Amino acid sequence: MATSNVQLVIFGGTGDLTTRMLMPSLLGLFDTGKLANFAVLILSNRNFTDDDYREFIRPFLRRSTKPDIPGFLQHIFYQTMDVTKATDYTAAATKSHEIDKKFDLGGNRIFYFAVAPRLFSPIIASLPDSGFLARPGYKRVVIEKPFGQDYPSAKALNEQLNHLFHEDQIFRIDHYLEKRMVQNIMLTRFGNGLTEGIWNSHFIDNVQVTLSETVGLENRAGYYDQMGATRDMVQNHIFQLISLLAMDQPISLRQGDVTEAKVAALRMLKTPDLQLINQQFVLGQYLGNQQEPAYLDEERIPKTSRTETFVAGELNFNSYRWDGVPFYFRTGKRLATKTTRIDVVFKAPQLKLFEEHHQVIDHLAPNILTILIDPDEGLSMQLNTRDSDEETFGSTNAILANTQPATGFETPEAYESLLSDIIDGNTENFPQWREIAVAWQFIDALRAGWQKTSPIIHQYLLGSMGPEQADKLLTRTGRYWAFDPTK
């Protein structure tokens, strides 16, 4: 249950993040009694009064229940602010202190940066002299992705934060870590003798992570063309999933021990060889059709852009546990379906018992453990069986466990969980700096290799699962993607 006595200071109060996610989520916590004595101070550049902002935000406060919206809005305040002006910080801090006194909040504040990444550093630099940090009470800071554009920029941002906040006061958002099935990966692995005993190269042939989107740029052209799929999705979400899949058992479930195990796994990733880099990684851009533009035809995208909207790759570990086991990933926009899933493909069975049987099919499929994360969540195990009404052996059936629709990553409901953890001071489901650092170091090395080798940007059709070269990542070694909705 979330703790009371807190003031959320939100930089950037009129954008999508605040209006569609943060404010409805806070209403949800208020409506369920998890947030009682609190206040929210919105800092943005529009010339609003408190009442103006309350009327502005009211249409966004819709829920299936009938919450006390007027009561909620009495906790919402607004201050016009230009984040580049020092005098505006002083005025905002003064109002924040007045609000703190009115609600007797004990000086507890959470600073939420719901602004463009380029404004993170100026805001942090302005906090010490503003008066925001002068009063007693805990102080925490929340930063959405991206945390930097590469390792040097991420390191500089982290050092700037560390001058003002301890690591346990910094909350770096990665929505995937709040998902139930992501949090279940460790329990699935280490809480079951069946899986823990076979979670290694003796039994597993390969691991596949698919994170596909059907949407395009969604008014993020400037940001996306600067970042691309690799830095937008792989450095954070996909590496978080892969670290949970590849790590050894932590000493305990304390966050420091889990972080240590995840970092150790990522440090064992083999840096791509320049001679093999274009065989092990595939980049792509989506084409258009009569209804939708190609990437190069999108507004604000240069015609000469080489930014990838799709990336697939093969990762390998310097690890006894994973010797010879490739970890494949793919992510992209404008693909056939929206899904996030993990397919753990086990080694094919020895067929000597069945190979001479005239009723066996030509090929027994490998066993596959699937972890469904979004839009459905649950577990599925693919086994070879004989149907009672069939004469042949070897039909493939899936055993499903606990499959149900998932709460979307970026929905008010998902943000309620994030905000509740932040207010409680629970950093368990937020990436720590060491994880982010080692992920950026690998991505920087990968991108440096691409700069030297100038890889082909393959085109792919809207509604496909990416360029055909992504299939060849696997087929060249006799493997295939376990999930293909186009077939």
From TrEMBL:
<dbReference type="InterPro" id="IPR001282">
    <property type="entry name" value="G6P_DH"/>
</dbReference>
<dbReference type="GO" id="GO:0005829">
    <property type="term" value="C:cytosol"/>
</dbReference>
<dbReference type="GO" id="GO:0006006">
    <property type="term" value="P:glucose metabolic process"/>
</dbReference>
<dbReference type="Pfam" id="PF00479">
    <property type="entry name" value="G6PD_N"/>
</dbReference>
<keyword id="KW-0521">NADP</keyword>
<feature type="domain" description="Glucose-6-phosphate dehydrogenase C-terminal">
    <location>
        <begin position="186"/>
        <end position="481"/>
    </location>
</feature>
<feature type="active site" description="Proton acceptor">
    <location>
        <position position="237"/>
    </location>
</feature>
<protein>
    <recommendedName>
        <fullName>Glucose-6-phosphate 1-dehydrogenase</fullName>
        <ecNumber>1.1.1.49</ecNumber>
    </recommendedName>
</protein>
<comment type="function">
    <text>Catalyzes the oxidation of glucose 6-phosphate to 6-phosphogluconolactone.</text>
</comment>
<dbReference type="InterPro" id="IPR036291">
    <property type="entry name" value="NAD(P)-bd_dom_sf"/>
</dbReference>
<dbReference type="GO" id="GO:0004345">
    <property type="term" value="F:glucose-6-phosphate dehydrogenase activity"/>
</dbReference>
<feature type="binding site">
    <location>
        <position position="179"/>
    </location>
    <ligand>
        <name>substrate</name>
    </ligand>
</feature>
<feature type="binding site">
    <location>
        <begin position="82"/>
        <end position="83"/>
    </location>
    <ligand>
        <name>NADP(+)</name>
    </ligand>
</feature>
<feature type="binding site">
    <location>
        <position position="333"/>
    </location>
    <ligand>
        <name>substrate</name>
    </ligand>
</feature>
<dbReference type="Pfam" id="PF02781">
    <property type="entry name" value="G6PD_C"/>
</dbReference>
<keyword id="KW-0119">Carbohydrate metabolism</keyword>
<dbReference type="InterPro" id="IPR022675">
    <property type="entry name" value="G6P_DH_C"/>
</dbReference>
<comment type="similarity">
    <text>Belongs to the glucose-6-phosphate dehydrogenase family.</text>
</comment>
<feature type="binding site">
    <location>
        <position position="145"/>
    </location>
    <ligand>
        <name>NADP(+)</name>
    </ligand>
</feature>
<feature type="binding site">
    <location>
        <position position="338"/>
    </location>
    <ligand>
        <name>substrate</name>
    </ligand>
</feature>
<keyword id="KW-0560">Oxidoreductase</keyword>
<feature type="binding site">
    <location>
        <position position="175"/>
    </location>
    <ligand>
        <name>substrate</name>
    </ligand>
</feature>
<dbReference type="GO" id="GO:0050661">
    <property type="term" value="F:NADP binding"/>
</dbReference>
<dbReference type="GO" id="GO:0009051">
    <property type="term" value="P:pentose-phosphate shunt, oxidative branch"/>
</dbReference>
<dbReference type="InterPro" id="IPR022674">
    <property type="entry name" value="G6P_DH_NAD-bd"/>
</dbReference>
<feature type="domain" description="Glucose-6-phosphate dehydrogenase NAD-binding">
    <location>
        <begin position="9"/>
        <end position="184"/>
    </location>
</feature>
<feature type="binding site">
    <location>
        <position position="213"/>
    </location>
    <ligand>
        <name>substrate</name>
    </ligand>
</feature>
<feature type="binding site">
    <location>
        <position position="232"/>
    </location>
    <ligand>
        <name>substrate</name>
    </ligand>
</feature>
<keyword id="KW-0313">Glucose metabolism</keyword>
<comment type="pathway">
    <text>Carbohydrate degradation; pentose phosphate pathway; D-ribulose 5-phosphate from D-glucose 6-phosphate (oxidative stage): step 1/3.</text>
</comment>
